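Please fill in the sequence for the structure shown.

STRUCTURE ENCODING:
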């Protein structure tokens, strides 16, 4: 069972990126899905969460700039990141709450 994250890269401050994370139907179908991030020397923190019925919540640091969404037909969760800041630089991971599966991480680097 694997989660495949993609979409990271290098972007200037103020720019945008869209992360995607694809998994199998048995993982996604009723799961609550989350995005975490981990900067060098820091703990892994939750960024955004979406339940199966589409309810979302965000860390205060990204609220209003990031949007989490899901496409159950494609077994994919997304993280649209706008107005990026250098402090958003981190490895971003997708995670399934109920089955505790982790994606491999995708690097996001925001230059000032």
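FILLED IN BY: designer on duty
SEQUENCE:
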């Amino acid at each position: 069972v694997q989660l495949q994250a993609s979409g990271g890269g290098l972007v200037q401050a103020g720019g945008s990126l869209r992360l995607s994370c694809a998994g199998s139907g048995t993982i996604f179908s009723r799961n609550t899905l989350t995005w975490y991030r981990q900067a060098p020397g820091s703990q892994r923190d939750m960024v955004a969460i979406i339940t199966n019925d589409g309810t979302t919540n965000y860390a205060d640091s990204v609220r209003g700039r990031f949007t989490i969404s899901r496409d159950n037909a494609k077994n994919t969760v997304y993280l649209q990141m706008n107005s990026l800041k250098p402090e958003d630089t981190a490895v971003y991971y997708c995670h399934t709450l109920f089955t505790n599966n982790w994606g491999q991480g995708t690097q996001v680097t925001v230059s000032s």
